[in-house]
Amino acid sequence: MAQSNVSGRPFRLFRNLNAKIAAIPMILTALVIFVGFSLWTVVYSFTKSGLLPRQDFVGLMQYERLWSNTKWLISIQNLLIFGICMLVFSFVIGFVLACLMDQKIRFEGVFRTILLYPFALSFVVTGVVWQWLLNPDLGIQSVMRGFGWESFAFDPLNNSRIVMFGVVIAALWQGTGFVMVLLLAGLRGIDDEIWKATRIDGIPTWKTYLFVVVPMLRPVMVTTLVIVTAGIVKVYDLVVAQTNGGPGVSSEVPAKYVYDQMFLNQNLGQGFAASTMMLITVAIIIIPWAYLEFGGRKRG
Predict the structure, then answer these.
(1) Where exactly are the transmembrane stretches of this chain (predicted)?
(2) Cα angle at 178 between 176 and 179, to 5 degrees?
(3) What secondary structure letter does DSSP report for 156?
(4) 57 by DSSP, 3-state: which?
(5) Contact indicator for 123, 265 with CB cutoff of 8 Å
(6) Of 1, 251, 260, 270, which is least packed with CB atoms within 10 Å of its CB?
(7) pLDDT of 244-298, one tens digit each?
(8) Rounded to whole angstroms, what are the CA distances from 214 to 94, 98, 108, 229, 290?
(9) Other Cβ atoms closer than 10 A to 282
C-alpha cells in the first residue's frame, strides 16, 4: 500500500500541468518582488542609509530613533483609533446592511450597486470629496446653517482632537459596502433548512442572526477581518488627500511617515525601519489567519 502511494506521487506532480506552468510567473514575481524586496528592506533598516542605500550598519539605532520620534508615536496612536473605529463600525454597519439585503427586498441589485459603488472609487477621490463635505464653508455645516440651524458646528478636519474621526467617516463611506458584500455572500451560503428549523422553533429573526448565523459565518468574517485590517495598516492616500497629516501632525499615519522619511527627509534607513515595523504588523495578522485557514484544513 505504501509502495503504491510512493509510486503515485510523481504522477500527482503532472496533474494540472498547464495551470502550474501558467502560475510560474506569478510565483517568481511573489518571491523576487515581495519576499526579496521585503528582506532587502529589513536588512537596510539596520544601516545609516540616507539619500541612497549604503551598507553602513548601525545596529538598532534606526529603531531607537523611530520609537523616540513623537511624529511616529502620534501616527501609531492615530492608526489605533482609525483601526478600532473601522473594524467595529464597518463590521456592525456591514452586517446590518447584509442582513437587510438578505431579506430579498425589491430592487436589491440596485441598492447593492449603490452601496458598493464608493468602493470602486480611489481613496484620493474619496478623500477630496469628503474634504469638501466636511469643509465648514462648503459642506455639511454650511448646508445645515443654510436651513436655519445657525448654532450647528461640524468641522472635524480642523480640530486636532477629532480629525481622525473625520477620516474614519470617509473610510466607512468607501469600505462598508465591500464588507456588506462579503458578509452577504456568506449569508447566501447558509442552508435554508436552518432558517426553517429556527422558524418552527419560534426563534426571533434577530436571535437567529446573532446566535445561529454569526457563528456559521466565522470563515467569512475572519477573511474579511484580515482584508480590512491589512488595508487599515497601509492607509495613506486617503489621509494625504483629506488632511495631508494636519492640522500639524494630528492625523499622521505610519505609511505617511515612511513616505516623508524616504522621499522628503531623504532618510532611507529611518523609512526602512518604519516599513519593517509595518511589515511585522501585517505578518502578525496574516500568519495566524493562514495557519487557521490552511493548517486547520489540512489537519481536518
Answers:
(1) 21-43, 79-101, 113-133, 162-187, 208-233, 272-292
(2) 65
(3) G
(4) strand
(5) no
(6) 1
(7) 998 999 999 999 999 999 999 999 999 999 999 998 988 887 777 777 766 655 5
(8) 13, 12, 22, 19, 21
(9) 15
Residue type, 292: L
Please list the ranges in the chain whose pLDDT falls under 70: 1-14, 293-300
Cell numbers linked to 253: 499615519
Neighbours of 217 (CB within 10 A): 20
pLDDT score of 177: 93
Chain-centre distance of CA 275, in angstroms?
A: 16
The 10 Å Cβ neighbour count of residue 45 is: 23
- Exposure string over 125-153, b if 16+ CB within 10 A, otherwise e: ebbebbbebbebeebebeeeeeeeeeeee
pLDDT digits (tens, 9 = 90+) for 155-188: 999 999 999 999 999 999 999 999 999 999 999 8
Q: Which three cell numbers stand for residue 104?
A: 430579498
Q: Which CATH number fits domain 63-299: 3.40.50.970, 1.10.3720.10, 3.40.50.720, 3.40.640.10?
A: 1.10.3720.10
In the chain, residues under CATH classification 1.10.3720.10 are 63-299
- Measured CA distances, 179 to 81, 229, 293 (Å): 19, 12, 19
Q: Which residue has the cell 468602493?
A: 119
Q: What is the pTM of this model?
A: 0.85
Q: Assess contact for 213 and 197: CB atoms under 8 A.
A: no
pLDDT at 1: 46
- The x, y and z cell numbers of residue 241, run together, are 488627500
Query: Are 250 and 160 in contact, with CB atoms under 8 Å apart?
Result: yes
